[in-house]
Design brief:
Layout: H1 9-20, H2 22-35, H3 37-50, H4 52-74, E1 90-93, H5 103-108, E2 113-116, H6 118-126, H7 132-151
Antiparallel strand pairs: 1-2
Length: 152
């Protein structure tokens, strides 16, 4: 989608001023927002309601981008059982810290997450009373023992 700019001389002059003075422009915008909060919020809400398709496409594009980054860094194999999740992998925060679920957040903090299949992710959440590192260690040992019994 190409952005079109106004050919109005005043608009051009204002845009140039904003590019030369970004801090001052940001300060003025913030002051305007503080003084006209309801008006700004209603305008944003109205725009969002009239552009649902565009918002959905943009959100899907970003989710796809972040998901590919996460898969590239962490993979799509369950950390505990080694099964490759074809449809969906859950990413679990290994330190047990609360965080907002966001693919962007996970992509920026991949060192704090492990890929898990749905079954193991649910099991870990049931065992949250135990520290997360210990839970992962116990589940990994139990899984190794189970695989030893199956393949012996």
């Amino acid at each position: 989608m190409k952005t079109t700019f106004s050919k109005n001389p005043d608009a051009i002059r204002m845009r140039r001023w904003r590019m030369k003075n970004p801090e001052r422009a940001r300060e003025i915008s913030r002051r305007y927002y503080r003084n006209n909060k309801e008006k700004c919020l209603s305008r944003c809400k109205k725009w969002a309601q009239s552009h649902t398709g565009q918002r959905k496409k943009t959100r899907e594009k970003w989710n796809e981008k972040y998901l590919s980054l996460i898969t590239e860094k962490l993979g799509n194999t369950c950390f505990l059982c080694g099964i490759i999740a074809e449809r969906r992998v859950d990413y679990h925060e290994i330190h047990g810290k609360p965080h907002k679920y966001s693919l962007k957040f996970i992509a920026e903090h991949t060192e704090d997450f492990v890929p898990l299949c749905k079954r193991h992710h649910e099991a870990i959440h049931r065992l949250l009373s135990i520290p997360m590192e210990k839970t992962l260690m116990l589940l990994s040992k139990a899984n190794d023992e189970w695989l030893g019994v199956v393949f012996e």
